[in-house]
Amino acid sequence: MPFEEDPAYLSKSRLKSDLVAHNVALPPAASKKEIYVELHLKHIDQRNAADFSSDEEDLVPDVADREEDPDHTEIPDPRTLTDDELKAALLHHGVKAGPIVGTTRAVYEKKLKKLLQPDESGKVNGAEKAVVYSDSEEEEEEEVEEEEQKADGEEEVEESVCTESEKQTAEQTDLAKQESSQAKLPYQNGSFPYLQCFMPSSRLHARPTSNRESKSKWNSRNAVKSSERSRSRCKEIPVGISRASSVDQHSGLGSGVPSGSQSVMSNGCSSFSSQAFSITQMVKEMESRSLISSSTDADRELNVSNVQEHRSQPIRLQIADRMKNQSVYYTPQDSPHKWGAQPPQEPMKDIIKEIFPETGTTPTGIHATRRRPIKGAAQRPVQYGYPATPVSPATLERREMERRRVPIRIQILVFLIMACILYFIYVNLEDICVVLLDSLNQGFDSEDGYSLQAETEDTQVVSGQD
Amino acid sequence: MSSTSQKHKDFVAEPMGEKTVMALAGIGEVLGKRLEEKGFDKAYVVLGQFLVLKKDEELFRDWLKDTCGANVKQQGDCYGCLKEWCDAFL
């Protein structure tokens, strides 16, 4: 990197923090700035010159260096960068950094670190898990291809696709690989040929199988070289090509699986792509889109299998085969010709595949799947809800009663109203009674009076007559 | 943010003035203490950090997490309230 900040221009606190960042013992607190500058020059600038500046520039384009000495350059420590360098590095990764000051520096360092890590992992085939296998596999394919001089570039594309997808599916690959060694064995022996759906390419037929082993060995030797190549290719390959090639890749993969050897596979791919592009291509393309990730798995399997195939004997393959999607679907081209034997078994695998579409693979080849839910009574949705707790008839009765009962408020209201009415009646009744009684009494009185009067009159009349 | 807390509304409603860092949404007593220990005693100091990180959510969240150990929700609250405040008053 071009800018080398002169430590003399840095502030004292800045120098101090830099020194701390570099794990350099600080001089006594009272010491002068010159001492800090000196230490800075001695420890930090040297280091920057040594591993940093060069590294920083190479970071993106040149992964090979990184690979060669991973320990050294694995993660260039952002802490050793100056503010400006840090900013430049971030810019390099497409991040527009704001001002890098004391409080923001840590944040940006972290960001840079984050940016660097995925970068590396992606290029070296990513996930740490896959590191062991990843590189050699891709290369093997390539090597074979080149060896045979088919070199249509399709293979390369194919591999590039593989690498990309591998990055994405790095986790799956491990399993697949382990599985693969077991799985491919049966194909080799020819015990499980697949029904051929597509036109096999002429090259496949012609291709002698004797070369396979030697080629695969050769491939493994050159694996390191090829890995770098493949990486570069990945970057360069345009999208359109890669997709078309992906189809080829799948077919190639499929073919490769049965043979168990790289050379066969590669041949199948290239030849197929060049010659047999037709309806089958479309079909495959459709399939390939959905199965790209899985295809990568198969790819790996193939590679791994090359190494292991010689040693291991095909025994428990059937189980393993079921689990692999790719091998099952794409085996067609090569298998019939090389081992054109028992078609019925393959379909069976397919069925099993269908039944257990999501089964994962295990390193041992023995896999346990989550028990699938029984599609019988157990899973049927409940149609009537039963009361959660059994209810005794008494409580049911009570509930029924409660439902019918008039709310207590209304009851009280009605009771009060009734009471009022009764009271009112009672009160009025008294008056009425009194009035009635009075009137009754008066009535009696007047009658009596009248009768008395009448009597008196009578008497008077009588007396008057007398 | 679908719903905002009362604290958020209070903070966003007016200029922050000399409010303490604990007035920020998502920053309670514990986080506030931690921030104060690191020199971020006022809300405007955190605002300064927020601005100097260019209002970048990811960076600000990272920073908040590193500085005071805020969890995701707290980060989101704090970021949201500063962001809204900035939209309103900056």
TrEMBL record, chain A:
Residues 75-119 form the LEM domain. Residues 53-71, 135-161 have a biased composition (Acidic residues). It holds the Pfam family Thymopoietin. InterPro entries: LEM-like_dom (IPR013146), LEM/LEM-like_dom_sf (IPR011015), LEM_dom (IPR003887), LEM_domain (IPR051656). GO terms for cellular component: nuclear envelope. Residues 4-47 form the LEM-like domain. CDD domains: LEM_LAP2_LEMD1. Residues 46-80, 119-184, 205-235, 243-262 are annotated as: Disordered. The keyword Acetylation applies. The keyword Phosphoprotein applies. SUPFAM superfamilies: LEM domain. The chain crosses the membrane at residues 406-426. It comes from the Eukaryota. Residues 164-177, 226-235 have a biased composition (Basic and acidic residues). Keywords: Acetylation, DNA-binding, Membrane, Methylation, Phosphoprotein, Transmembrane, Transmembrane helix. GO terms for molecular function: DNA binding. Belongs to the LEM family. This is LEM domain-containing protein 1 isoform X1. It comes from Parambassis ranga. The gene is lemd1.
Automatic annotation (TrEMBL), chain B:
This is Barrier-to-autointegration factor. Belongs to the BAF family. It comes from Parambassis ranga. The lineage of its organism: Eukaryota, Metazoa, Chordata, Craniata, Vertebrata. The gene is banf1. It is found in: Chromosome; Cytoplasm; Nucleus envelope. GO terms for molecular function: DNA binding. Its main location: nucleus. It comes from the Eukaryota. SMART domains: BAF. Keywords: Chromosome, Cytoplasm, DNA-binding, Nucleus. GO terms for cellular component: condensed chromosome; cytoplasm; nuclear envelope. GO terms for biological process: chromosome organization. InterPro entries: BAF, BAF_prot, BAF_sf.
